[in-house]
């Protein structure tokens, strides 16, 4: 754990709940674990804990509305927002949670958090009824979609004098949970050298949805996990990442996500992004067919007649990108197979003008749709196929990105 915090810049954002007094211990523990800690506080937080206490413990001036000199100051909020590798909001009140969920920046704390691309960890603390209020839960969901991680609240003895869920998680547990949550993102021993620095990578993810009528569509079982894992791995390797996704999942704020619905929409987004990209990775499960004529109104049944859907072939996104490949670009596709894995992957490599095909036998244990693990064979034109043992999709993603980095330089 100590290794995780070593030389990390942690910005502790303290808002006005009674648990604010625990920010003192949290500051101390983070520093003890090896982090550089700076603090930003709201006015309400200072009613519970003087800024001076945290200034002394963190050995840095605390940014408050009163000390905020505006953008020209040496300790301004943009400077602090950039400095932070990690922002820990503890305690986070329902009020600030709501502001962040709707993008309000009306004090120095919200302005700093909003101006930062760092990973954000919310540690809420509030009354139990307030926590289960639908408006609060809506805001929590919104922040989760926006990429915030949540620790707690915990169940226990509340300031109100009874046992319920709403307590801020104890500082010791916060420090360990953050390290557990984020060790993968920050470790990346494989990418110490940042082999994709300065490169732009476009990745597709999820299962496309082909409309039948305004309320129905055809799709597949893809969860998008592999594509999202690749996006995180490419980001960790230093790339600028654009994810064209047909399935929405949580992702680092540094990754640009373009949400799409059907195959033609995905193709249009990919084409546009590829004009400035170095790498394309087609991890999406693209529907090979779409409904020839999408009904304007909900299709009704009248009796017990058979329903026939007339399907036409969709464009092949990978093939389109492969054919338009510019010198120096690397194009990667996937091949979901049920037999003759390597032969079929080699055929797809040629047919789609790809540099690498990541092949998996979807019938095999530990591989395929909607799982956390994958077992793949990496097929390129010049090397012997590389069989990768079954492992987490996040780890498979790192192997693929490492090979992509090799292909870019070869
Ligand atoms: N792919 C694509 N556009 C399509 C179909 C597939 O870009 N219309 C891409 C997928 O994203 C994947 C690769 O092609 O990277 C292989 O997909 P797969 O379904 O295995 O192959 P198909 O080309 O559809 O061939 P088949 O279904 O006949 O095996």
TrEMBL record:
Residue segments, region Phosphopantothenoylcysteine decarboxylase? 1-200
Q: Which domain of life is it from?
A: Bacteria
Alphabetized UniProt keyword annotations: Decarboxylase, Flavoprotein, FMN, Ligase, Lyase, Magnesium, Metal-binding, Multifunctional enzyme
**SUPFAM superfamilies for this protein:** CoaB-like, Homo-oligomeric flavin-containing Cys decarboxylases, HFCD
Cofactor names from the entry are: Mg(2+); FMN
Q: Where is this region: Phosphopantothenate--cysteine ligase?
A: 201-410
Q: Name the coiled-coil region(s).
A: none
Which residues participate in CTP binding? 288, 298, 315-318, 334, 348, 352
The UniProt entry, under Gene3D superfamilies, shows: CoaB-like, Flavin prenyltransferase-like
Enumerate the catalysed reactions. (R)-4'-phosphopantothenate + L-cysteine + CTP = N-[(R)-4-phosphopantothenoyl]-L-cysteine + CMP + diphosphate + H(+); N-[(R)-4-phosphopantothenoyl]-L-cysteine + H(+) = (R)-4'-phosphopantetheine + CO2
Pfam families in the record: DFP, Flavoprotein
Assigned EC number: 4.1.1.36, 6.3.2.5
Record text on cofactor binding = Binds 1 FMN per subunit.
Q: Which GO terms describe its molecular function?
A: phosphopantothenate--cysteine ligase activity; phosphopantothenoylcysteine decarboxylase activity
| Stored InterPro entries | CoaB-like_sf (IPR035929), CoaBC (IPR005252), DNA/pantothenate-metab_flavo_C (IPR007085), Flavin_trans-like (IPR036551), Flavoprotein (IPR003382)
Q: What family does the entry list?
A: In the C-terminal section; belongs to the PPC synthetase family.
Q: Which PANTHER family match?
A: HOMO-OLIGOMERIC FLAVIN CONTAINING CYS DECARBOXYLASE FAMILY, PHOSPHOPANTOTHENOYLCYSTEINE DECARBOXYLASE
Q: Return the protein name.
A: Coenzyme A biosynthesis bifunctional protein CoaBC
Q: Which species does this protein come from?
A: Fructobacillus tropaeoli
């Amino acid at each position: 754990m100590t290794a995780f915090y070593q030389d990390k810049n942690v910005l502790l954002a303290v808002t006005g709940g009674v648990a604010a007094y625990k920010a003192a211990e949290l500051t101390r523990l983070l520093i003890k674990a090896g982090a550089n800690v700076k603090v930003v506080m709201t006015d309400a937080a200072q009613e519970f804990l003087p800024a001076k206490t945290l200034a002394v413990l963190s050995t840095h001036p605390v940014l408050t509305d009163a000390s905020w000199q505006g953008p020209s100051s040496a300790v301004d909020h943009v400077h602090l927002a950039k400095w932070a590798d990690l922002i820990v909001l503890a305690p986070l009140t329902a009020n600030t949670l709501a502001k962040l969920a709707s993008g309000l920046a009306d004090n120095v704390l919200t302005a700093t958090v909003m101006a930062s691309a760092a990973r954000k960890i919310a540690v809420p603390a509030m009354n139990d009824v307030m926590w289960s209020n639908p408006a609060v839960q809506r805001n929590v969901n919104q922040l989760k979609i926006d990429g915030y991680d949540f620790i707690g609240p915990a169940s226990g003895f509340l300031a109100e004098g009874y046992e319920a869920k709403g307590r801020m998680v104890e500082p010791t547990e916060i420090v360990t949970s953050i390290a557990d949550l984020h060790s993968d993102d920050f470790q990346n021993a494989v990418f110490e050298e940042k082999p994709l620095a300065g490169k732009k990578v476009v990745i597709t993810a999820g299962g496309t949805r082909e409309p039948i009528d305004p309320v129905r569509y055809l799709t597949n079982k893809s969860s998008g996990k592999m594509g999202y894992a690749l996006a995180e791995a490419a980001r960790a390797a230093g790339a600028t990442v654009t994810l064209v996704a047909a399935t929405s999942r949580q992702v680092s704020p540094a990754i640009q996500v373009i949400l799409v619905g059907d195959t033609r929409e995905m193709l249009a987004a990919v084409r546009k992004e590829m004009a400035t990209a170095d790498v394309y990775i087609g991890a999406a499960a693209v529907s090979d067919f779409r409904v020839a004529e999408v009904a304007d109104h909900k299709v009704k049944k009248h009796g017990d007649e058979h329903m026939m859907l007339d399907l036409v072939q969709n464009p092949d996104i990978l093939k389109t990108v492969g054919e338009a490949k510019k010198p120096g670009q690397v194009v990667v596709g996937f091949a979901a197979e049920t037999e003759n894995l390597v032969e079929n992957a080699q055929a797809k490599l040629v047919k789609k003008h790809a540099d690498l095909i990541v092949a998996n036998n979807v019938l095999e244990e530990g591989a395929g749709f909607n799982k956390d693990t994958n077992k793949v064979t990496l097929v390129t034109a010049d090397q012997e196929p590389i069989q990768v043992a079954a492992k987490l999709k996040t780890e498979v993603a790192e192997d693929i990105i490492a090979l992509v980095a090799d292909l870019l330089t070869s």
